[in-house]
Amino acid sequence: MAGEAARTRDRVHGSATRLFAAHGYAGTSVRQIAADAGVDPALVIRHFTSKEALFLDTMHLDLGQPLDEGPVGTLGERFVRYLLDADDHVRGVFLALVRASALGPVGSRLRTVHEELFVAPLRARLEGPDADLRARLAGALVGGLLYALWVAEDEVLRAADPDLLARTYGGLLQGLLTPQG
Q: DNA binding happens at which residues (predicted)?
């Protein structure tokens, strides 16, 4: 019986992850999640207590690899290229979190994600007394690019050559990561 409950929970989790990333918090109902998972809506609440709790449990981004590997001296361009190549799931999770950020716990989750997945790993790789400030400014710079591409859907940026964007925006980011003098 415990195995079936775990499988049901996993199906609900997988359905919620897909649906929230595709349609956002407001555009996804518990009934839709349940139907996609092939379960009764009451089971969704039984396993996750609320739609909000399920949203917070499913909307995760893993930015570790590009921030943790390779020399810091080339991280700016490499990270921007990684973001430009991000799949629909990464874009969907980012948009779902931003669009639901007015909800108290979601806004808190967004701050936690920003701190734990971007600022802290980056700060750990930077040198100097202002490493924390530069890591936070780098996060703001990256967030600006994602906002322009994915929220505002800036057509000029979206149509631009990805290599040129990676070099140009990556250079701006690199200036924060390894400032000259």
A: 29-48
